[in-house]
Amino acid sequence: MSELVSQPWTQLKAQEIVERILALPDVGAGRVVIVSETSAAVLRWANSTMTTNGHTTSRAVSVIAMVAVVGGTAAGVVSSSAAVTHPTQLQDLVRAAEDAARGAGPARDAMPLPEPTGDDRTWADGAVQTSIGVYETFAEGLAEVLAGPQRHYGFASHEITTRWLGTSAGVRRRWAQPTGSVELNVKSPDLTGSAWTGASTADFADIDVVALAAQASARLGWGRRQVKLPAGRYETLLPPSAVADLMVYLAWSMAGRPAQEGRSALTGPDGPRTGERLTDLPLTLAADPFAAGFEYEPVLITTHSGDGISVFDNGAAIRRVEQVREGVIAELGYSRAEAVEFGTTFTPPGGNLLLTGGSAASPAEMVARTERGLLLTCLWYIREVDPTTLLLTGLTRDGVYLVEGGEVVAEVDHNFRFNFSPLDVLRRASEVGATERTLPREWKDWFTRAAMPPVRVPEFNMSSVSLGR
Amino acid sequence: MSIDRIDPEFRAIPLTALADAALSRAHALGVEHADVRVERITSQSIDLRDGTVTGIVDAVIVGLAVRVIVDGTWGFASHVELTPERAAATAERAVEVARTLRPVALERVVRADEPVHAGAIWVSDYRIDPFAVVTRDKVELLTERSHRLLASDGVDHVRAGVSQVRENKFYADLAGTSTIQQRIRIGPSITATAVDRAAGGFETMRSLASPAGRGWEYLTGEGWDWDSELAVLPELLVEKTKAPSVDPGSYDLVIDPTNLWLTIHESVGHATEYDRAIGYEAAYAGTSFATPDKLGTLRYGSVHMHVTGDRTVPHGLATIGYDDDGVATTEWDLVRDGTLVGYQLDRTFAPRLGLGRSNGCAFADSPHHVPIQRMANVSLRPDPAVDRPTEDLIAGVERGIYVVGYRSWSIDMQRYNFQFTGQRFFRIEHGRLTGQLRDVAYQATTTDFWGSLDAVGGKSTWGLYGATNCGKAQPMQVAAVSHGCPSALFRRINVLNMRSERQ
Q1: In this structure, are A193 and A324 located in the same domain?
Q2: Alpha-carbon distance B114 to nearest alpha carbon in chain A (angstroms)
Q3: Model confidence, pTM
Q4: Distance CA A435, CA A271 (A)
Q5: Residue A11: predicted pLDDT
Q6: Which residue in B has a C-alpha nearest to residue A394's C-alpha?
């Protein structure tokens, strides 16, 4: 089955929508407009045949109205994906946002909107488009892969979201964000063996699908010898994808307010655990909008408020944030209003995640140094079990391999359910290798820009055996 | 049903003209099948922290989709502009896509027949459209409830919220079916937190109310007794903070519908999706241990296990009159007397099982997504003969735990191994409840778990619970689904202690 969505038809350009909405009278305590246009091209295959392909574009207009109300300032957000063909629609959006704001009552995160921090020379540019053409080379390689003896399943996605942010404080910023990923699941013809490789990319120019498929096929080869292992604590080599999934969840859990209020794993008896040393390894967990190849918007653009984020911060400059610095818990997330409330610094959320500070060792070199342990492929269905310790559960997926005497000697013929906290991954890591670009398989629908090292954890808790393969 | 009940803004769209334009163009281009969907999905979420609004977000998604079959190959296209010219052009693009893909499509599409449903109108069961209630009133209700909890001893923080959706769907196909539907769903939540700064810990207790296919009346006492629950929530929370930590081991579990629905969702609902069972989701959502070669023979569970699929139960989140294949919805068996006997199907999958008709599980979450096979309300039948109360199930347990409310969930990609936690765990000793326990998680393999089902409660224990965030497919589509079930007794289930799991 195939999917194809054509260009949205609108008379109004994005910048025109922004200016017209901001020019409507009675701005009140502030007004923010975000026009977001996404161009996406996808390929999906299963049982070695293409299933869903397509190119779609979509656009949404969001208006955030700040309104003076009894007791302070209120905010309301309205988003619409309807084609904007009449200026009256814009009036309706503003009115609806103002109604929502009046209904909400005074907001605790109210702040004057940030002042502009400079001109955006790309403001007048259009939306950046992707197309099926982005897969030209990839598709040739994929055809070769699909013709092979194994059974193939997978998904390739490339999308570019262009956002225009305009505020009544004078901010005008445009940002085009490319997000791409590919996942290959390769199974033996009798479906008893399954392996996976994945990668994140900005433009697919750096993706060699034939090489990715060969890596997965090589892993299927490790399955010639199968072993059963009981549940228990194993020395475990977490590959970069698995580390990414665990660290992404940790990063999402590092908002400041819950830690200040005592309802977070980042709370100790004396308040937030900032300053607490997790490890003697010099590990740094950071989000950096300027990291080459992992860039994200340098100003905050958001349509919702919550712990650590506020619609009143739209247009505020974003900086590198180090959540863990040289092994020590460093920065928790605070909106500008929360920073004032708790006497700390505005600490915005990030669009990438980078764990650095390990050695130059590759996963293969770490295998070579392993007397006996498990090498994982990736993790799946990760959920929080105990928020007080950030204990997570989940499963190994598409390949658990037994390492003995520095070599992979067999594939475990089942998977494991694990129970482990990402905080304990950092606390107990005995070896950390070289950081590389990776794809967090569990969270990839929401988060793809990650660079992580392989990590050795001496006693990773494989809580039970899963018969799933 | 009267057209008057359909949202006037949706009725104002020239639905018939759009359908005529798209279908006649598709017909002229020689398609074997064409259908048009026009959708308008209106939503609002309201969130409060400690009695103050943190966010109100209103959103609307509109669009038109055309799906065609040309020479046995699917084609699909969609657009946001709702004019006959654009509808015809979208049909052309869908045909173009089908023709382009014809050479690479290995399988020819064959679909089950369906009677024509012309001019059908269907509206879900609700009294008050939440979008007819002023936002201020909704906020006041949530604020008052938040303050009620905050004023109680032992409650330090309260989160409250409500999400509301009105989904309008028009469908028409070349065979002559045309339907206009409207359904409303609402998802209220309220959670109290107790903080123990001295010990550096905290505990939460959430309302057991579930998202439901109901209107605003659900927030004011119809279908859920808020006042009674809010009155006991703080003391339950305080009791939980002082409760002993569970000793891990084997326990008999009496599982309340407020917890069991999610176990059914994960271990039966997803495992009996036909597209998963034949590998379509292998790289993402996963496959199923319950493969079609085992249909009619797989021992899924004990004889007490009778699971149905339906899109018809009142207030069900997956309930609708006609699916996105134009199929009139129904109820059927998935597991009978403990044996796998059915799957969830759309019109393409039904013939592969040798069935003459689909059971109505085609659904797209947006006008810009292709319909795929999605989960029906998958429900466990209560005891048909005896209206056994939950107390009787508890009375039959020497050493066990009564599990109430859901919290953490996880299951593997073949739907074998799962682990669940909950909101409230009550120790059972010699057939009686003796106070709460903490740190409980239960873990099992699907067929072992259902094989250990020793008794189901009667119809008076039955409840309908569900979720609005079920994800599937790439690009991901999100669907809402309910699961009805009685209380049920499971023997000798492995219980973990979350604290010792971390040691």
Answers
A1: no
A2: 20
A3: 0.97
A4: 32
A5: 64
A6: B410
Looking at the structure, tell me whether residues A185 and A241 fall in a common domain: no
Question: How far does the CA of residue A463 sit from the closest CA of chain B (Å)?
Answer: 8
CA distance A35 to chain B (A): 14
Contact A104/B93, CB-based, under 8 Å?
no
Decide: residue A68, CB within 10 A, 0-12 exposed, 13-18 middle, 19+ buried. middle
Q: Is the reported ipTM for this assembly greater than 0.90?
A: yes
A397 touches chain B (CB under 8 A): yes
Q: Which residues of A touch B74 (CB under 8 A)?
A: 1-2
Q: How far apart are CA A92 and CA A86, in angstroms?
A: 10
Q: Among partner residues B98, B197, B498, which is closest to A262 by beta-carbon distance?
A: B197
Q: Mark whether A152 and A60 lie in a shared domain.
A: yes
| Phi/psi-derived region of residue B119, left when phi > 0, alpha when psi is between -120 and 50, beta in every other case | left
CB–CB contact B80 A83 (8 Å) = yes
Q: Are B27 and B94 in contact (CB under 8 A)?
A: no
Interface check A305 vs B, CB under 8 A? yes
- Residues B313-328 pLDDT 10s: 999 999 999 999 999 9
Burial, B3: exposed, middle or buried (Cβ in 10 Å; 0-12, 13-18, 19+)? Answer: exposed
DSSP reduced 3-state for A79: strand
Query: Do residue A315 and residue A434 come from a single domain?
Result: yes
Q: Are A281 and A311 in contact (CB under 8 A)?
A: no
Interface test with B, best of A184, A466, A469 (most B CBs within 10 A): A466
Residue B365 structure tokens: 């979450």
Are A392 and A298 part of one and the same domain? yes
The DSSP output letter for B299 is B
Q: Which candidate, A427, A383, A375, A439, places its Cα nearest to that of A404?
A: A375
* Structural domain boundaries, residue A41: 2-213
A231 within some domain = yes
Enumerate the residues of chain A whose CB falls inside 8 A of the CB of residue B501: 385, 391, 419, 461, 463
Decide: A271 and A260 in contact? Cβ < 8 Å. Answer: yes
**Overall domain count for chain A:** 2
Chain pair A-B, CB pairs under 8 angstroms? 273
Torsion of CA A304, A307, A312, A315, to 10 degrees: -80
E strands in A241-388: 267-268, 271-272, 284-287, 321-325, 328-329, 353-356, 372-386
Centre a 10 Å sphere on the Cβ of residue B320 and count the other Cβ atoms it contains.
Answer: 23
φ and ψ at residue B42, rounded to 5 degrees? -105, 135
Where are the strands (E) in A18-48, listed by range?
Answer: 30-46
Residue A276 CB neighbours (<10 A): 15
Residue A193's pLDDT is 92
B-chain CB neighbours of A77 within 8 Å are 55-58
Q: Is residue A218 part of a domain?
A: no
Residue A337, min C-alpha distance to chain B (Å): 12
Cβ atoms < 10 Å from Cβ of B381: 19
Tokens 């013809």 found at: A189
Cβ of residue A434 closer than 8 Å to a chain B Cβ: no
* A 330-369 → B contacts, CB under 8 A: none
Residues A190 and A276 placed together within one structural domain of the fold = no
Mean pLDDT to the nearest integer, A306-311: 97
Q: Are residues A207 and A236 in the same domain?
A: no
Q: Which of A444, B363, B269, B410 is nearest to B277 (CA)?
A: B269
| A352 lies in the same domain as A431 | yes
Residue of chain A with shortest Cα separation from B413: A468
| Pick among B48, B81, B193, B412 to test the A interface (most A CBs inside 10 A) | B412
* Chain segment B8-49, per-residue pLDDT in tens: 999 999 999 999 999 999 999 999 999 999 999 999 999 999
Residue from the list B46, B106, B414 with its beta carbon closest to the beta carbon of A469: B414
